[in-house]
Amino acid sequence: MADYAELIRTIVSRLVTKPDDVDVRQEIEDGKVKVSIKVNPEDMGRVIGKSGATIKSIRVIAKAAAIKSKDKIDVVVEE
């Protein structure tokens, strides 16, 4: 299993105004890789984006990275 958390952390840290508050965790849940993103509440809108466009793009990148190792991946933003 690849380190998807580091990939997501790199992307999200460049989007937010407080990169030191970015916390990304990776775990296995029901046979899927679950990557949880936690950011400063002020940066939540930057990570989600207008109509969810930014988080959708992050999910597409994560799924593309998971194709080679045939991992199923789920990326969630926690409050």
UniProtKB/TrEMBL annotation:
InterPro entries: KH_dom-like_a/b, KH_sf_prok-type, KhpA. GO terms for cellular component: cytoplasm. The keyword Transport does not apply. One of its GO terms (molecular function) is RNA binding. Pfam families: KH_KhpA-B. It is found in: Cytoplasm. It comes from the Bacteria. PROSITE patterns: KH_TYPE_1 (PS50084). The keyword Transit peptide does not apply. A probable RNA chaperone. Forms a complex with KhpB which binds to cellular RNA and controls its expression. Plays a role in peptidoglycan (PG) homeostasis and cell length regulation. Forms a complex with KhpB. Belongs to the KhpA RNA-binding protein family. This is RNA-binding protein KhpA. The lineage of its organism: Bacteria, Thermotogati, Synergistota, Synergistia, Synergistales.
